[in-house]
Amino acid sequence: MPDPCAFCGSTEPLTREHVFGQWVSKIGLDLSPVQHGAGPLNGMPRDMGEQPPFRQTVKSFCASCNNGWMSRLEVAAQRVLTPLILGGSATIAPADQAVIAAWIQKTALTAMLISSKEQRESGYGLSPVEYRALYELREMMQPLDASRFWVGRYEGPAGFWAVRVTPLSVRLPGIAEPDLPQCYLMTIILGGLALQGLRFTTPALEIEMTSELGMPQLWPSRVPVSVPAGQPCTRASFLRFADGKLLQSGVEHVELRPWTHAAELPQSTIVGGKVRVPTLCGKHFFYYPVALLEQAFRGRFYVFMTACECQTAYLIQTEPDGAHCKAAGAADDIGHIYENVPGDEFLIQDETGEFVCKEVVTR
């Protein structure tokens, strides 16, 4: 039996749909080939090779959806967003705000289907309920209930773009993290445009959130929204932005955090005088001296290079909450990044052997 349309459930033949409408590649953005990848937040992304941007497609929707309501969203997005993507300014009228929010949601849902069928069957991705619910609102051209969206600007290297969906949980002091996430954050970077949407899948837990960057709220809103406004998202702040760490809760003592099971690796342990940390591939571990962990408690942090049996190299940096992977790839590439990290290099010698690292320069 053929797979049904992810949105309407039809068993009609499926067609290919671009994650970003084809118009995005025709408005003047840099189309130089770049490395592509997709996958879970706490694992090694699936290598999709080097290719021109904005050409990724999924075969998950029927022709009726693809050429109907989904196409209408793209037409509206092209008209409203093109000036902002190209780094200009614009005012988004109230009549356009719902449809742009719906486009953000549709684009994020589509991007999640780049994952393999095996990944989705193992629990990766968003619930099919989200796809069906957005389809039910196709005539209204608005996003799902219990959602809010922001629009701002991105300042960073030309050619960088991203679609990222992060599951979040509502956290209260002294209460354990729930078994399932209660909302998810959608982040899209496209040219000079930064878009973000928050959808509470448990509507009763919806709380007021604002952007720490001062990005104006696109939806719900009843007034014209002028863009750009507030501070930009940068390449350096992108991960914090996409993890929801630049959102502010309007309820005292209540906050949103990335859902641990999807966003973080299993906790590290101390084995034989070294800290053992799972690698992104999910199959191996890397080790670093306990002395670096002790230094982190004192506010001194270090960066080092390591590798696993998969022949993947990693650039690791210690931070107040542990060691974090800053880059992964071929050993030569990671070695070049490490060499360009400012700071003095140290050789640590203990009973477990020798370890080379650099102290992070803070200003």
Main sheet, how many strands, which sense, barrel? 7 strands, mixed
* Class by alpha and beta content: alpha+beta
User: In percent, how helical is the residue content?
Assistant: 10-25%
Q: Write down the domain tally.
A: 2
Integer average pLDDT: 89
- Low-pLDDT stretches are none
SS summary, helix count: 9
Would you report the number of β strands?
23
Computed Rg: 22 Å
User: Cα distance, first to last residue?
Assistant: 60 Å
Name the shape in a single word.
globular
Into which percentage range does the β-strand content fall?
25-35%
Write the layout of secondary structure elements.
Blueprint: E1 14-18, E2 34-38, E3 46-51, E4 57-62, H1 63-67, H2 69-85, E5 90-92, H3 94-111, H4 117-121, H5 128-136, E6 147-155, E7 162-171, E8 183-190, E9 193-200, E10 209-211, E11 217-219, E12 225-227, E13 233-234, H6 238-242, E14 247-249, E15 255-258, H7 260-263, E16 269-271, E17 274-278, E18 285-289, H8 290-297, E19 302-307, E20 313-319, E21 322-329, H9 331-339, E22 345-350, E23 353-359
Parallel strand pairs: 6-13
Antiparallel strand pairs: 1-4, 2-3, 5-12, 6-9, 6-11, 7-8, 7-15, 8-9, 10-14, 16-17, 17-18, 19-20, 19-23, 20-21, 22-23
Features:
9 helices, alpha+beta, 363 residues, globular
Overall description:
The structure is a single chain. With 363 residues, the chain is of the alpha+beta class. The chain has 2 domains: 14-260, no CATH class; 269-359, no CATH class. Helices cover 22% and strands 34% of the residues. It is built from 9 helices and 23 strands. It has helices spanning 63-67, 69-85, 94-111, 117-121, 128-136, 238-242, 260-263, 290-297, 331-339, and strands at residues 14-18, 34-38, 46-51, 57-62, 90-92, 147-155, 162-171, 183-190, 193-200, 209-211, 217-219, 225-227, 233-234, 247-249, 255-258, 269-271, 274-278, 285-289, 302-307, 313-319, 322-329, 345-350, 353-359. Strands 6, 7, 8, 9, 11, 13 and 15 form a 7-stranded mixed sheet that branches. A 5-stranded antiparallel sheet has the order 21-20-19-23-22. Strands 16-17-18 form a 3-stranded antiparallel sheet. Strand 16 and strand 17 form a beta hairpin. Helix 2 (69-85) crosses helix 3. The longest helix has 18 residues, at 94-111. The mean pLDDT is 89.
